[in-house]
Write a structure and sequence with these properties.
- Strand 15 and strand 16 form a beta hairpin.
- The chain is globular and about 80 Å long.
- Helix content is 27%, strand content 18%.
- The chain is an alpha+beta fold.
- Helix 11 packs antiparallel against helix 15 and helix 11 packs across helix 22.
Length: 734
C-alpha cells in the first residue's frame, strides 16, 4: 500500500490509498515538514484504513509515497492502464544529474528517528535499469553488500546526496537507516573492499562546494571507462591522506577513530536553492543503532519497512526467527486457523524459510485430503515469481516424465493479516526433505538403490524444468521432498494426530515482560517430522517431488548474476563471471546434489564454508581458475601463488595439516564412506560411468558442462539410473 503526500507537495498519484482531507488545492506548501501536523489524510476506503494525520504520517512509522507508475506490490507488475504523470520537478532533477535515465516511477520513503529500510535486493521487476536514490533531510547511513556477499560498504549520506546503482550493483543487498548518535566504529571494526567502489557512484549536490570536482559528462554514464579514474580522483580530493593509500588496490581497515569514508563529486550549487525546501527545518534527532539489527546478510525481504526490535525469551532451536513477525514479515498462524473461507484448516507445521512458513492443512472440500500451505511474508520477492513459474510448469503440455516429479500448484490466494497482505500457495503434501532425512539418520547415507532412484528422478525433473525455459536456481537436498505414504496422504486431522502426534508448541514471551501484540503468535509451533532417516528409505519410499521455485527464473527474460543455492553448491561463475547465470549453473548444483545423495557430503564442503573457502576447494580440485576469474579473486594470495599452487605458511600447515584433496581423492570418498557403514558400493563398471557423469557436470567453465539432455542420455542414467527409477515405479504400484 502507498501513502501519498498532500496534493500540493509532490504530485500525489490518484491511485494511492489516501487523499487530502480537505480542499486545499489553492494552498501551496513548501514541504511535508511545514504542513499542519493535525491535518488528516482521509482513506479512500474507510473500511480498510483509518484516517492518518500528518504528524502520524511523518513521525510514527516509516511511510512511503509512490510517484508516477503505480507498482503493484502484490503481483509485482505495473498496471496496464496509463500511469499518473511523474512529477516534472523531480524528473528535471534526475535528468540533470543522470541524463541517461528516463524517470518513470519512484518511491519516496519518509523516515523518523530509528526507522530502517532493512536489507533487501531490488529484484521485484524483471529489468536491469539502474536505481537512483536521493537523500533529503537528516544524515543517514547507506549500507551496500559486496557482490560476493562477504562484506558491506557503509556510506554516510547527507541531504542532497545521490547514489546510483547500475549493472550488477542494482541487484545486490542494501539498506538504509537514519544516522545514529553512536560511533559505529566503537563496534567491531569494518573492512572496506573496493568492489562497491567500482560499482557505485556517489554524488553530493548540496555540500562542500570547496571540494567541487569538474568532471566530463561521459564520466556519469553507467559502465563508463572514466568511472574508476573519477572515483580515484574523488578519493584523492576528499579523503584524509591517511585513508587514501590502497583504497583502489587492496582492502583497508579503518581504526575506531576514523570518520566515515565517502566519495564526493559535486554538481552546480544552483540545484540547492530549488530543493532546499525538501529539507526538514527542524532539529535532527537520531536514535542509537545496534548494527546487528540492521544488517542481516541472509535476509531477503524486499522493502521491509519499520522493523521494531522486540526481544523474546529463549525458544529452543528448530523454529523460525521470532523477530520476523513484524510488518512485512511472517503471518502469525496457529493450529486450527482456517483459510480460503474455511476450506483449509491448519493441522501441523511442516517448516519455515526466510520468506515463508509452511503448514500441513486439511482440505474440507476434498474430504480427507492433506495439502501444504506455503504462506509468504508480505514483502517476499519470491512469492509472485514462484507462483508464475509453478503455473507455467503446471500448464505445460510436455510429455517428458519429469513433469510428474514437480510439485503441483493446487490453489493460490491472498489474505490480509496484522503484518500485511500475504500470498498463499497450496500444493500437495509431502514428507520430509532429503536434507532432513540425512540429518536424522545414523550415518547420513542412502541405500544404493534409493540413491539411484532419487538421482534419476531429480535429473528427469530438471530436464522438464529446463525444457520450459526455466532455471531452478536453488537446487539442494532441502528442496527434494519424499512423497507421503498412502496411509497418511488421505486422512483427517484427528487421524493424522493418531499417526504422528499432536503439534508441539511453546508459549512466546517478550523479554521485557510486556504483553504480545497481534503481530506474533501466542505460541510457536515446532515442525512435525513426517518421514524416515535416510538409512531407512527403501526403494518404494524413494518417490520424490522437486519443490521451492522461489528463486527460479526465465533465462530469456531475467538476468541474474548471483546464485541463491547454498554456498558449497553454488557454481563458481556466480562470483566471477560477467555473463548472467543460466542452465549450466543448475547443472553444477545438480552435480553437487547427486554427489551428496551417494556419499555423506557434497564434493566441496568446508567450515565455516565462506565463498573464499569453497573457491579454494575448487582450485584444489580442478587447478587454477580461468584467467578472467583468477584476476578478479582479490584474496587469492592468501592461499595460492600466481601459478595456482598452494601458498600456505609452514606454521599454518603444521597447525591445520595439509588438507588439500584432489578430484580423485574426493570421488574415492563416496565409496569409502559407504564401505565404512557396510553399505553397498559401486561396482567398477558403475563407478566409472558415475564418475564420467559427475566429471561432465562439474566443470569450471559453464560452456563446457554437459546439458541436462546430455546427462539424461549418459551411460550411467541409461544403465543404472533409469532402470532403478522404473523398478521404483513398479514397487509403488505393488
Amino acid at each position: 500500500m502507498s501513502y501519498p503526500s498532500p496534493h500540493e507537495t509532490l504530485s500525489t498519484a490518484d491511485t494511492a490509498a489516501f487523499q487530502d482531507g480537505r480542499n486545499s488545492s489553492s494552498q501551496k506548501r513548501a514541504s511535508f515538514f511545514q504542513d499542519n501536523p493535525a491535518r488528516e489524510l482521509v482513506p479512500k476506503d474507510p473500511s480498510v484504513h483509518p484516517p492518518l494525520s500528518i504528524a502520524s504520517f511523518l513521525g510514527k512509522k516509516l511511510r512511503w509515497i509512490t510517484l508516477g507508475g503505480q507498482y503493484n506490490w502484490t503481483d509485482k507488475v505495473y498496471p496496464s492502464e496509463i500511469p499518473p504523470q511523474f512529477p516534472a520537478d523531480i524528473a528535471s532533477l534526475l535528468r540533470k544529474i543522470f541524463p541517461e535515465t528516463k524517470p518513470e516511477a519512484a518511491i519516496v520513503n519518509l523516515y523518523s528517528p530509528g526507522d530502517t529500510l532493512s536489507v533487501h535486493r531490488d529484484v521485484s521487476e524483471e529489468c536491469d535499469t539502474g536505481l537512483i536514490s536521493i537523500s533529503f533531510g537528516c544524515d543517514g547511513l547507506f549500507m551496500v553488500g559486496h557482490l560476493d556477499g562477504a562484506g558491506c560498504e557503509i556510506i554516510r549520506l547527507r541531504s542532497g546526496d545521490a547514489v546510483y546503482m547500475s549493472g550488477q550493483a542494482s541487484k545486490i543487498a542494501h539498506c538504509w537507516t537514519v544516522q545514529p548518535n553512536i560511533d559505529i566504529y566503537a563496534q567491531p571494526s569494518f573492512t572496506f573492499f573496493k568492489s562497491a567502489i567500482v560499482y557505485t557512484k556517489r554524488l553530493t549536490l548540496l555540500h562542500l562546494p570547496d571540494r567541487s570536482l569538474h568532471l566530463p559528462k561521459s564520466a556519469l554514464e553507467p559502465g563508463s571507462s572514466h568511472v574508476k579514474q573519477v572515483l580515484k580522483a574523488a578519493y584523492q580530493a576528499c579523503l584524509p591522506k591517511g585513508l587514501q593509500n590502497g583504497l583502489l588496490d587492496m582492502p583497508i581497515q579503518l581504526s575506531p577513530s576514523s570518520s566515515f569514508h565517502s566519495v564526493w563529486t559535486l554538481f552546480p550549487s544552483s540545484f540547492a536553492d530549488d530543493y532546499d525546501q525538501l529539507r526538514p527545518h527542524c532539529k535532527c534527532v537520531s536514535a542509537p543503532l545496534p548494527t546487528d539489527s540492521i544488517f542481516h546478510p541472509n535476509q531477503k525481504y524486499a522493502h521491509h519497512y519499520g522493523i521494531e526490535q522486540v526481544k523474546y525469551a529463549y525458544v529452543e532451536e528448530g523454529v523460525e526467527r521470532l523477530d520476523y513477525y513484524v510488518r512485512g514479515g511472517y503471518h502469525p498462524v496457529k493450529i486450527g486457523d482456517e483459510f480460503q473461507e474455511g476450506r483449509y484448516v491448519i493441522a501441523h507445521k511442516l517448516g519455515f524459510g526466510r520468506s515463508a512458513t509452511t503448514w500441513l492443512a486439511e482440505d474440507k472440500v476434498i474430504k480427507k485430503l492433506l495439502i501444504t500451505l506455503k504462506i509468504s511474508t508480505t514483502e517476499s520477492v519470491e512469492r509472485t515469481h514462484e507462483e508464475q513459474i509453478l503455473l507455467r510448469l503446471t500448464k505445460s503440455r510436455s510429455v517428458l516424465p519429469g513433469e510428474a516429479i514437480i510439485q503441483t500448484l493446487l490453489d493460490s490466494f491472498t489474505f490480509s493479516g496484522p503484518n500485511g497482505t500475504h500470498r498463499c500457495l497450496a500444493t500437495g503434501a509431502a514428507r520430509v526433505s532429503i536434507h532432513v532425512a540425512k540429518d536424522i539418520a545414523y550415518h547420513r547415507l542412502l541405500q544404493l538403490e534409493a540413491a539411484r532412484a532419487i538421482a534419476s528422478q531429480l535429473i528427469l525433473a530438471l530436464q522438464f524444468v529446463h525444457a520450459q525455459g526455466v532455471v531452478h536456481g536453488d537446487l539442494h537436498a532441502g528442496n527434494i521432498l519424499l512423497h507421503l505414504p498412502p496411509n497418511i496422504r488421505s486422512i483427517t486431522r484427528e487421524q493424522l494426530y493418531i499417526n504422528v502426534g499432536r503439534p508441539d508448541e511453546e508459549p512466546v514471551v517478550r523479554a521485557d515482560g510486556l504483553p504480545l501484540d497481534n503481530r506474533i503468535p501466542l505460541k510457536v509451533v515446532f515442525p512435525v517430522l513426517l518421514g524416515l532417516g535416510s538409512d531407512e528409505i527403501k526403494l518404494a519410499d524413494s518417490s520424490i517431488l522437486l519443490t521451492d521455485f522461489g528463486e527460479a527464473f526465465d533465462s530469456q527474460r531475467t538476468q541474474r548474476f548471483t546464485a541463491h543455492a547454498p554456498v558449497p553448491l553454488s557454481p563458481p561463475e556466480s562470483r566471477f563471471a560477467d555473463e548472467p547465470l543460466s542452465f549450466p549453473s543448475d547443472i553444477w548444483t545438480l552435480g553437487c546434489v547427486i554427489w551428496d545423495l551417494f556419499g555423506s557430503s557434497p564434493p566441496f564442503e568446508t567450515f565455516p564454508g565462506s565463498q573464499d573457502d569453497i573457491i579454494v576447494e575448487h582450485v584444489e580440485t580442478f587447478g587454477k581458475l580461468p584467467d578472467q576469474w583468477w584476476s578478479k579473486w582479490e584474496t587469492r594470495g592468501s592461499w595460492f601463488d600466481e601459478e595456482g599452487h598452494k601458498n600456505v605458511k609452514e606454521s599454518l600447515r603444521q597447525y591445520y595439516g595439509n588438507t588439500s584433496r584432489s578430484w580423485t581423492q574426493r570421488f574415492a570418498e563416496i565409496n569409502i564412506s559407504r564401505q565404512s557403514k557396510k553399505l553397498e558400493t559401486f561396482d567398477p563398471e558403475e563407478e566409472k560411468s558415475f564418475h564420467d557423469m559427475m566429471r561432465s557436470m562439474l566443470v569450471l567453465e559453464p560452456s563446457e558442462r554437459a546439458s541436462i539432455d546430455d546427462v539424461v542420455r549418459c551411460e550411467w542414467m541409461q544403465r543404472w539410473g533409469l532402470p532403478e527409477f522404473q523398478r521404483m515405479q513398479s514397487a509403488l504400484r505393488d
